Amino acid sequence: MIVGHGIDAQIISQVSAVAERRPGFVDVILTPAERAVYDARKGKHRQEFLAGRFSIKEAYSKAIGTGIGSQAHWQDIEILPNEAGQPVMVKHPRQNQVVVHISISHTGDTVHSSVILEKAVTSSVAGENHEKVANQAVISTRRPAWIEISASAIAQNIATVRELTGTHHFIAIVKANAYGHGLAQVVTAAKQANVDGFGVATIDEGIWLRQYGVMEPIFILGVTPADYVDDLVAHQLIPVVTSEAWLDAVSCKLSRQATLVLSIGVDTGMGRIGIRHQEELQRVVEKINQNDQLILKGIGMHFATADEKDQTYYQQQVKTWHKLVDNLPLPSNIWYHLANSATSLWHEQPSHDAIRVGAAMYGFNPSGKEITTDKLTPALSLKAELVHVKKVAAGTAISYGATYTTTQPEWIGTLPLGYADGYARQLQGMYGLLPDGRHVEMIGRIAMDQMMVRLPEDMPIGTVITLVGKVGQEEITLAGLADHLNTIPYEVATSLSTRLPRKLVK
């Protein structure tokens, strides 16, 4: 159970200026162990470290509801980097009472921090929480393989779509662990970019957002069973009304005095969920209008072919929408949300009220090769460090099945990730990028947790290999991997395992 949440933001240059004017300031804020890390860093990295520790300690004090100096002093809180370089709170005043989840991110001259306090599991309730703990994903923070999410790329993509569409409300779609990019990282970046709402697929994703501190409207795009109406109310989530029967079931289960905010789904040709007939749609709107416990926040649809050059079916859906919706007695402040990423990029907007954007926010081209675009910047990079390097003789077989055998003496490097991390077994023969942009081929079969690359020469352990992302002028994209796998980049991204740590970077 979440028992506290605090957020804070600091201007890095301002914190640095205070440290320059008052040399003792650093030792007030940092513990001796933190000071050692601070002293080992140089330039902007030192400034970011100090501002980050200042901010995260402020956020912790807000999470416990006291402020610095009451029940939490600067020296009582210690945040040190773990083996993967990620900040971990190793000491704080409520050490035995709560589990602390922290996030520190830098954007330009600003550091943003978030602290979530979760009630610790005691022995008396351990049995009750066993299933919950068993279902939690293990994130491998002590292994040098990780995903980086660019906050600036997400912000740039959001700004691009806003400018293209001119719409009033931007709904950031963060379902499926933010398309595999990481909920915490993407939500943080999207909030920094001032989105107006969020969209998820399930009620559990919506509850997670609320517990993370999201205050904006949260739309659930998938069907929520009526049995969970109390949870919808408690967490102020907006489910989609997909039928009159669903609305009737929810209305019957709604507690007295409770208020439920709704969005209506209209099926104009996607054939998935939503109301298809005008009479049913009219009855649904009338029932909502006549029930003081129900508030209609939105109404939307989904385009099936907005990412194709042939606009015939797209225009047919637009006509169906107007036929079904135009004469409905809807509230004046309702959010009309029709456009998805493809509609936002390539069509005249059917409504300038609200857009639901997933793929474009992450830098995907939702059309693949059908319609090209240069307006988007990929937000995700996948990287790993060499953990083992060896020189082998000609005639040496590598990995399962001996599918690769050296024809001459070669340097072979091992990377600590594999198909269990979402880097598919079929990607044997693809390549990664060295820090100077040179290609290194994946040789031998990709195993569950490890894979090998052919190196041009001996290289030190810890050399970073980019598997998705840009190095200089060279770039490996999710779309490129998807082409190799004969699928779409959405599938590649959402297949990236939760055990890979996600890091929000500039």
From TrEMBL:
InterPro entries per record: 4-PPantetheinyl_Trfase_dom, 4-PPantetheinyl_Trfase_dom_sf, ACPS, Ala_racemase, Ala_racemase/Decarboxylase_C, Ala_racemase_C, Ala_racemase_N, Ala_racemase_pyridoxalP-BS
Gene that encodes it: alr
Domain of life where this protein originates? Bacteria
Q: Which reaction does it catalyse?
A: L-alanine = D-alanine; apo-[ACP] + CoA = holo-[ACP] + adenosine 3',5'-bisphosphate + H(+)
Residues annotated as domain Alanine racemase C-terminal: 379-505
Protein name per Swiss-Prot or TrEMBL: Multifunctional fusion protein
HAMAP family linked to this entry: AcpS, Ala_racemase
User: What's this protein's family per the entry?
Assistant: Belongs to the alanine racemase family.
Provide the species name. Answer: Weissella thailandensis
Q: Which Gene3D superfamilies match?
A: 4'-phosphopantetheinyl transferase domain, Alanine racemase, Lyase, Ornithine Decarboxylase, Chain A, domain 1
Its UniProt pathway annotation is: Amino-acid biosynthesis; D-alanine biosynthesis; D-alanine from L-alanine: step 1/1
